[in-house]
Design brief:
The structure holds 2 protein chains of 2 kinds. The relative contact order of chain A is 0.17. Chain A is globular and about 60 Å long. Helix content of chain A is 39%, strand content 23%. Chain A has a 6-stranded mixed sheet, with helices on both faces. Chain A has a domain of 165 residues: P-loop containing nucleotide triphosphate hydrolases (Rossmann fold, 3-Layer(aba) Sandwich). The two termini of chain A are 29 Å apart. Chain A is α/β, with parallel strands linked by helices. Chain B is an all-alpha fold. Chain B has one domain. Chain B contains 12 helices and 2 strands, in the order H-H-H-H-H-E-E-H-H-H-H-H-H-H. In chain B, strand 1 and strand 2 form a beta hairpin. In chain B, helix 2 crosses helix 10, helix 6 packs across helix 7 and helix 10 crosses helix 11. The longest helix of chain B is centred in the last third of the chain and has 27 residues. Chain B is globular and about 60 Å long. The N and C termini of chain B lie close together (12 Å). The C terminus of chain B is likely disordered. Classes of the chains: A alpha/beta, B mainly alpha.
Chain lengths: 261, 322
């Protein structure tokens, strides 16, 4: 195995008396698609927020390419190349699709804000570059037809694609997808599965996702980490996870028992 | 582009030529004072508008106008500075103070931020009452009119004291300051800084996740806002030649906000139009005597009900944006 791009080391998060994550550790290899699964309330989203810098671990650390990113504010984590998309369809509502993607290129700007104010040469170069890259991302995600639509008018499926476009605009190395298949029907899910694969295959991204949809997770993941009650209970390939007794136990009797699908 | 140039040309022609001609013809010299006030208030309102643009309700611009006024007055009276030097210094002083105040309070959102800013104006007034350098309730009076501004012997602005018509000079100065302020504001909004402010206004979490230093950006926008408040205050003081702790009070802070609401929060030139209509409208309504406030506030409520997005939304084509 090559050196891991992301390392989760003994991450623990307590909210008062509640332990959301307890001593969670796993590595993510470059260009890997790794899913974090677990029943509702298992602490998956909390883990994600700690990786992206939205909350700090109580103890333990997250390393990106060997250096610590836990404890940094989200904008610094993003600057290093680790970006999250949101569970809810979080977008800039009163901007068009294209404006959303262009503004999300903030990290790519070389000119200063003052440079942009006075329209310096570098600022104009940057703006042209943002526009080109935004169109490229819009094409990649197949959003050409709604490029000039107001984001607030978009249906659910397009919103999620736009959320992904915003994430891609930062040109990350690791993208964290929070429930990318939630509320999707079978066809939509299959399209999204194909898209996530293309993120890795065509854009060379490492993808970390939190998801409930077991068939999709089994289909898409190189490896899976299963969390229950804040603790990691299993880690392995999809077939290993499907055969793991602790995973089956965690899901048995719950609505999510369809793990073998 | 051509249309825009025509618009700018028409605006400048109106403000710098047609208004003075109109006043000369009708002999309504009192309009100069009103219109100068409108110009300067709209500079302060431009700042408030910018804080709205990052999603914060600012009811504290009066505080910065007061601080700017005092900074200018004190530097002129005690340190013998030229007014023209104190004008930018007043803005810079306010910007610096707003960084210190803004760092903690800009974490607050919605009504909580609004309440704290509301208190700021009162804090500024009480501070001015208490400090020896501001001369307490007696204020600072008999401030000389702005002197000559010259660069390399070339007179750019003549000595106001020697002018035959200082009212016109003040009007032109105020209008020039207003034009410059709105040029800067327009440029901010249409450059990357403005786009980032909009991203902040619409979703702070997402803005942070695309790498925007949201805390820094909020403070930056707030300090630009306060800079505008400071220079507006300094200019006011130069015109009235005096400043008291009650020169800018909570009512003024609220008015700054109302100007923005009335003109429209989505339009750069909204606060300018809002100031003109509200301030000038109030003046014109004085013919209604005891009914002045009733008519004024009644029409204000009606306008907010009918045009919640401000007056300029009247000119919006459906579903289109500039």
């Amino acid at each position: 195995m090559t050196a891991p791009i992301l390392q989760i080391k003994g991450v623990t998060k307590r909210f008062g008396g509640l332990t959301a994550n307890s001593e969670i550790s796993f590595d993510v290899a470059p260009r890997e698609i790794l899913s974090v699964i677990g029943p509702n309330g298992a602490g998956k989203s909390t883990l994600f927020k700690q990786i992206a810098g939205f909350i700090n671990p109580t103890s333990g650390e997250v390393l990106f390419k060997g250096s610590r990113i836990s404890g940094l504010p989200p904008h610094k984590v993003a600057r290093l190349g680790v970006v999250r998309t949101f569970q809810e369809t979080t977008i800039f509502r009163s901007m068009t699709v294209r404006e959303n993607v262009v503004v999300a290129h903030h990290l790519r700007s070389k000119a200063s804000l003052l440079g942009f104010f006075f329209g310096s040469g570098q600022a104009r170069t940057d703006e042209a570059e943002f526009a080109r890259s935004a169109d490229d991302i819009i094409d990649f995600l197949g959003l050409q037809s709604i490029r000039n639509e107001m984001a607030s008018n978009l249906p659910q499926g397009h919103l999620r694609a736009l959320g992904m476009a915003i994430g891609l605009a930062t040109h990350p190395e690791v993208i964290l997808l929070d429930e990318p298949f939630a509320g999707m029907n079978h066809d939509e899910t299959m399209r999204m599965v194909a898209l996530v694969r293309r993120l890795r295959d065509e854009r060379g991204l490492t993808v970390l996702l939190v998801e409930h949809d077991m068939p999709a997770v089994m289909k898409i993941s190189d490896r899976i980490v299963c969390i229950n009650f804040g603790e990691k209970i299993a880690e392995g390939t999809p077939s290993e996870i499907q055969a793991n007794p602790r995973v089956i136990e965690a899901y048995l009797g719950s609505e999510d028992a369809a793990i073998g699908m | 582009m051509a249309l825009r140039l025509i618009g700018i040309g028409a605006f400048l022609l109106g403000v710098f030529v047609l208004v003075p001609v109109f006043i000369a013809v009708t002999g309504r010299w009192d309009f100069y004072y009103t219109l100068t006030s409108v110009a300067l208030l709209s500079v302060g309102a431009a700042g408030v508008w910018l804080t709205f643009y990052i999603g914060r309700i600012n009811i504290g611009q009066g505080a910065y106008a007061l601080v700017g006024g005092y900074v200018s007055a004190i530097l002129v009276m005690k340190a013998g500075f030229s007014f023209w030097v104190t004008l930018p210094l007043a803005g810079v002083a306010c910007a610096l103070i707003s960084v210190v105040i803004g760092l903690p309070i800009l974490r607050l959102r919605g009504v909580y931020f609004a309440m704290v800013t509301l208190v700021l104006t009162e804090v500024a007034r009480l501070t001015a009452l208490a400090l020896p350098v501001t001369n307490g309730a007696k204020g600072i009076t008999s401030i000389p009119l702005p002197g000559e501004l010259s660069i390399l012997g070339l007179t750019i602005i003549p000595d106001f004291a020697g002018l035959a018509n200082p009212k016109l000079a003040f009007y032109l100065m105020g209008a020039a300051l207003m034009a410059l302020t709105y040029l800067v504001l327009w440029r901010i909004v249409n450059s990357r800084l403005g786009h980032l402010c909009r991203s902040l206004q619409q979703n702070e979490e997402l803005a942070a996740s695309i790498g925007v230093n949201t805390a820094m950006l909020r403070v930056l926008a707030y300090s630009i806002s306060s800079f505008f408040g400071g220079i507006a205050g300094a200019m006011f003081v130069a015109i009235s030649q005096s400043i008291y702790p009650s020169s800018f009070v909570v009512t003024d802070s609220v008015n700054f906000m109302l100007y923005c609401f009335l003109g429209g929060l989505g339009y750069v030139f909204g606060p300018m139009l809002g100031t003109l209509l509200l301030y000038f409208g109030w003046d014109l309504l004085s013919v209604a005597k005891q009914y002045q406030l009733l008519i004024y506030s009644g029409s204000m409520i009606a306008l907010m009900l009918v045009l919640p997005n401000g007056l300029l939304s009247l000119f919006d084509k459906k579903e289109s944006r500039q």
